[in-house]
Structures are given as structure tokens and as C-alpha cells.
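Exercise: predict the fold of this chain.
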Amino acid sequence: MKKILSVCAVFFTFLNLSFSQGILTASSFFKSVSENYAAIKDYEADVDIKAGNSFMKGKVSYKNPNLLRIDFSSPEEQVICFNGDLLTIYLPESAAILNQTVDNSNNTGANLATSQGLALLSRYYSPAYETGQNAVPLEEGSEEMVVNLILRRRNMSEAFSTIKLSILQSNMLIRRIEATTPQGETFTFDFRNYVLNKGISDQRFIYDPPTSANNYNNFLFSE
């Protein structure tokens, strides 16, 4: 579970994305995605996360440039919150609070929860169209049409060998992220029911976990 949640923290940092039409190359497409989504002030969306036989469901709140919160309905009461300085994950089943302080010298997934996050992703991964620029069904039988980008790592040190981004044709938002490790593990993030620019308060990203839970600091570097 800790591994899955760490991956969640990494990938939600890549959500300052958007889309524009008329792009001919995958690199230009990816650059435009980054530039346009940065204009979104905030959003909320439903999210489903799958890793192997593990499944999680919740609502994600994001505020530009680097505020993030996920409130889970499954597992119930589980929370991921990043306030710009501190990443906090509350695990109710374990009565545990995982904390990770973020600074410029700390090159972790949480550190990518900034306006520079996608630029870093672009630096370490090379984008390509999966089947071309034209939209295709999200999956067999689906009426949702997406443009698929495949990002391949530039060097062997990156945690994921490929990252697939599926961009909805209808509203130009990310519908699905599929990240695959060199060992063949796949983490899938499905996003639905986006609400953009609703004026989310900074207070939304202040989280006080239960005082009865045990604290574990700098968990990203712990065994």
C-alpha cells in the first residue's frame, strides 16, 4: 500500500496539463498540453487508482501551482495532502501518518508537485503518439475518444519505463494515465467528472490528521 500511495503522490504532480488542437508532432503536442493546463486555476475530479489487485477510489482537488488533496472513499477516510511544503498521507487502517518534507534539494515525486513538474517529466521522458494524432476509443467498446501519448524514459534511472497519457477529445483533459515499471507492474489512474476553476480555497489543503495515529517522517526514504 505504501508503494502504491507513493506512486499516487508522484503522478498527481503531473496533472497541471491541458491540450490544444492543430499539433503535428508528439513533442509539440506534449509541450502544448503543459502550457495550456498551466492556465487552469484549480479543479476537482473523481479518480480511480488500480495497481495489480489493489484498487482505490476518491476525489482529487488541485490548485495551481502546487496544492493537492485526495480524499478517498475506498479505503474510507484515507487522505493524501500536499500543501506546497509537506506531503501527508493518512492510512486509517494502520493508524499511520506518513510525512515527507519537500525542498529544492529533495528530488522526490512530491517535489514534482510544482509548475516545473511537467517540465521535469519532459526532460526525462521522450513523447510519441501511440497510434497517431487522431483520436481512438479509450478501450474496446468505449464511446470516449482519446489521443494517446506514450512517454518513454531517456535513461535507466527513472522508475517507470513508459507512461501512457490518454487525452479526451471532447474536453481536452487527461482521462487516463498508465505507468509501467521495468518489472512489468502497471499503475492506472482514471479521471472523471472534472470541475474546473471553481475557486478552491487554500484552506482546502490544510489537513489535520487524527492525533491518535502514529507519525512516520521522511517515508519516501524509509525501508
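Check your answer against the key: The chain has one domain: 2-216.
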